[in-house]
C-alpha cells in the first residue's frame, strides 16, 4: 500500500482539513472486512441509496445513527441460537457496524427493511444561500451590480 504525504497541501490551504482526512483514510481497511455486503447507487442527480444485505436481522436489531457528516449503521443479534445445532451455517448472523462519510448537505430521507435488504435513501439538499445566483450588470456612470434571483433584493 502506498502512503502519500499531504503536508504540502496543508501548508498552502485553509479549511480543507476534512477533505485531507478523507484522502488519508481512503486506503485504510474497515474493521469487520466486507460484512455485511452493501451497494451505493445514484438514483438521480441529488438522490442516493445505500443498500445493505442484512438477512436474519429485524428492525429491532438494526440501528441507524447520523452525527455531523458520518452515517453509522449497526446491527446486533440477540443470543438465541445457542440452543440450535447447525450442520452448516452459511448465513452470517454476527454483529456489525458500517460507517459512511456523507458529503455536505446530504440528509437521510427514509430507511426501510424489505426482503433482508436495508435501504437508506439519501438526498442532497443545498440551502438557498449556497445556490448560485444570477447577477445583472447595469451600465452607466453610476453602474452597480444588482442581484437578480435574490429574494431580499426584490
CATH architecture of the domain at 35-80 and 89-126: Sandwich
Mean pLDDT: 80
How would a textbook summarize the main sheet?
Answer: 4 strands, antiparallel
Main sheet: strand order: 1-2-7-6
Number of separate helices? 2
Task: Point out poorly predicted stretches.
Answer: none
Cα-atom radius of gyration = 23 Å
Q: What is the CATH third-level topology name of the domain at 35-80 and 89-126?
A: Immunoglobulin-like
Report strand %: 35-45%
Label this structure with key terms.
154 residues, mainly beta, Immunoglobulin-like, four-stranded antiparallel beta sheet, three-stranded antiparallel beta sheet, 9 strands, 9% helix, elongated
Give an overview of the whole structure.
The strands form three sheets. This protein has a four-stranded antiparallel sheet with strand order 1-2-7-6, with no helix packed on it. Strands 3-4-5 form a three-stranded antiparallel sheet, with no helix packed on it. A two-stranded antiparallel ribbon has the order 8-9. Strand 1 (38-44) and strand 2 (47-53) form a beta hairpin. It has helices at 7-11, 17-25; strands at 38-44, 47-53, 62-67, 70-75, 96-101, 106-114, 117-124, 135-137, 145-147. The model has no long low-confidence stretch (mean pLDDT 80). With 154 residues, it is mainly beta. The protein has a domain at 35-80 and 89-126: Immunoglobulin-like (Sandwich). The protein is elongated and about 90 Å long.
Quick description:
A hairpin with a 7-residue loop joins strand 8 and strand 9 (145-147). The chain is built from 2 helices and 9 strands; from the N terminus they run H-H-E-E-E-E-E-E-E-E-E. A 4-stranded antiparallel β-sheet has the order 1-2-7-6, with no helix packed on it. The chain has a 3-stranded antiparallel β-sheet with strand order 3-4-5, with no helix packed on it.
Amino acid at each position: 500500500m502506498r502512503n502519500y504525504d499531504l503536508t504540502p497541501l496543508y501548508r498552502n490551504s485553509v479549511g480543507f482539513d476534512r477533505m485531507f482526512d478523507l484522502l488519508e483514510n481512503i486506503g485504510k481497511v474497515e474493521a469487520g472486512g466486507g460484512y455485511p455486503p452493501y451497494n451505493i447507487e445514484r438514483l438521480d442527480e441529488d438522490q442516493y441509496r445505500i443498500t445493505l444485505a442484512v438477512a436474519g436481522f429485524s428492525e429491532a436489531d438494526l440501528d441507524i445513527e447520523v452525527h455531523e457528516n458520518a452515517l453509522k449503521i449497526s446491527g446486533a443479534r440477540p443470543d438465541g441460537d445457542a440452543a440450535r445445532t447447525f450442520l452448516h451455517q452459511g448465513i452470517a448472523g454476527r454483529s456489525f457496524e458500517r460507517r459512511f462519510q456523507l458529503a455536505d448537505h446530504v440528509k437521510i430521507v427514509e430507511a426501510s427493511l424489505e426482503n433482508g435488504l436495508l435501504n437508506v435513501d439519501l438526498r442532497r439538499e443545498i440551502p438557498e444561500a449556497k445556490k448560485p445566483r444570477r447577477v445583472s450588470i447595469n451600465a452607466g456612470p453610476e453602474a452597480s451590480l444588482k442581484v437578480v434571483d435574490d429574494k431580499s433584493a426584490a
